[in-house]
Amino acid sequence: MKIILTNDDGIDALGINSLFETLSKKHEVYMIAPDRQRSACSNAITIHDTVKLKKTDSRKYSLSGFPADCVNFGLCSGIFPEPDLVISGINHGPNMGDDIYFSGTVAGARAGYIHFRSAIAASYESFTDFSLISDASEFIREFAEEKVRNESSNFFFNINYPSIDKNEIKGIKLTQLGKRKYVDRYDFVLENSEFKEYRLEGIVDSIHREGSDVTELSKGYISITPLHLDTTDYTYFKRAQ
C-alpha cells in the first residue's frame, strides 16, 4: 500500500514519526509535513506565495505550508506515486466534536478526501505523555489495512486513541461528533505606539452525550467517527416548506 502521511504538529513531531516508522514496516510511505507547528490552521492553503520543499530523510519531506498544502502537494505535484490512502497524524492531543473544524490534523485528511482519496485523521489523547504512542501507531496501521482491504468506496475517518495501556482499553466505538465548549479569552500582552498585542487563552470543556467521541474516549474506548464533506442543513429545507 502507498500512503501519504502528514500532520499539523510539524515534521519533527513524535506522533508522525512513530506512525511513519510503524507504517513503513509493511508499506511504502511518503511523509510530507509542515516545517513547523501548524496546529489549529484548519484547511488553510498557500495561494499567494510559493511553498518550499525540503527532503529531510528517505521518503520524508518538509513543506513551508499547512497540512492541506502538504496533501495537495503530495497528490498534485507529481513527485510522489499515486497513494492508496492519506493519513494525517498522529496528533498530539485529541480532536473531537467541534475541534474538527479548527484542526489542521483533520484538515490534512479532509484535503485527501476532497481529492477523492480515502483518508484517516488520527489523534492521541495526551498532549504530554507519549509513552504509549507506539500502541496507537500499531492500531492505526491495522485499522488502515483493514479498511483499505474491505471498504468498497472512499472513506474519511477521525480516530481518537486513549492514552492508556492497550490492555486497559475497553474496545472500539463507532461514534458521532460530540460538542466542545470553548471558554476563550484574550490576554493583553503589550502595547506600543502602533498596536496592542493580545494572546488567546482559555479552556476547552465538553458536553457529554452517549455515543459521542467526547464521551466514549473519556470512558477508555478508541473513538472512530466517520466524516463527510456535506455540511448542508437539510432540516432547513423541511422548515422552509
Q: How many whole angstroms does the radius of gyration measure? A: 18 Å
Kindly state the percentage of residues in helix.
25-40%
Low-confidence stretches: none
What's the number of helices?
7
Major beta sheet, specifics?
Answer: 9 strands, mixed
Mean pLDDT: 96
**Biggest sheet: strand arrangement:** 3-4-2-1-5-6-7-11-8
Number of strands: 11
Q: Whole-Å distance between the termini? A: 48 Å
N-to-C order of helices and strands: EHEEEHEHHEHEEEEHEH
Oligomer: single chain
Q: What portion of the residues fall into strands of 2 or more residues?
A: 25-35%
What structural category arises from helix and sheet content? alpha/beta
The dominant shape is: globular
Architecture blueprint of SSEs:
Blueprint: E1 2-6, H1 14-24, E2 28-34, E3 53-57, E4 60-63, H2 67-76, E5 85-92, H3 99-102, H4 104-114, E6 119-124, H5 133-150, E7 156-161, E8 171-174, E9 179-191, E10 196-207, H6 213-218, E11 221-226, H7 234-240
Parallel strand pairs: 1-2, 1-5, 2-4, 5-6, 6-7, 8-11
Antiparallel strand pairs: 3-4, 7-11, 9-10
Helix pairs in contact: 1-5, 2-4
Summary?
With 241 residues, this protein is α/β, with parallel strands linked by helices.
Explain the overall architecture.
This protein has seven helices and eleven strands. It is of the alpha/beta class and 241 residues long. It has a nine-stranded mixed sheet with strand order 3-4-2-1-5-6-7-11-8, with helices on both faces. It has a two-stranded antiparallel ribbon with strand order 9-10. α1 crosses α5 (133-150) and α2 packs parallel to α4 (104-114). The chain is globular. It starts with a strand and ends with a helix.
